[in-house]
Automatic annotation (TrEMBL):
The keyword Ribonucleoprotein does not apply. This is Transcriptional regulator SlyA. Residues 8-144 form the HTH marR-type domain. GO terms for molecular function: DNA binding; DNA-binding transcription factor activity. It holds the Pfam family MarR_2. The keyword Membrane does not apply. It comes from Bradyrhizobium ivorense. SUPFAM superfamilies: Winged helix' DNA-binding domain. Coiled coil: none annotated. PROSITE patterns: HTH_MARR_1, HTH_MARR_2. The gene is slyA_7. Residues 165-174 have a biased composition (Basic residues). InterPro entries: HTH_MarR-typ, Tscrpt_reg_MarR-type_CS, WH-like_DNA-bd_sf, WH_DNA-bd_sf.
Amino acid sequence: MVEQPDWDLRLGYLIHDVSRLRRMMFDRALAPLGITRSQWWVLAFISRKDGLPQTQLANELDVGKVAVGALIDRLEASGFVLRQADPVDRRVKRVYVTKQARGFLEKLRKETDKFNAKIVNGIDRKQLEAASEALLAMKHNLIAMSDGETPSGANDEEEEAQPAKTRKKKRAAA
């Protein structure tokens, strides 16, 4: 039997390495489309919360205002988003997804699905569901450790981690 501290350490490194490798390979897979993973992440988030103020977007993504501003600059230059002054407070810039971006997001979703299929190739569905449930439980434990305060954006990925069947049931109930 493996000692507990070694197992904990190994699990942490494994989670980190899988995440790092996935990010690296995902950037490589998206390169031919002319978009980075970071840009895709922001674009996908905006598409779910269209018209969000730029400062709130930075807060929800847990990214600095300057960093999110630079990402939005690049997305705007590509024709994927546009900024508009808030009708009530002209100092506030709201970010909207363009029609061009909606079509591009469909293409990105297909590429993401192919990419994810390669990652899970040869892994049994039950193993994947068990791993997803374990990671989700760890996430809930980490949130509980933060005195119940949900870190910005923490719940948004949770739906994506659930099996497609569960997501469809939740959407139908909503």
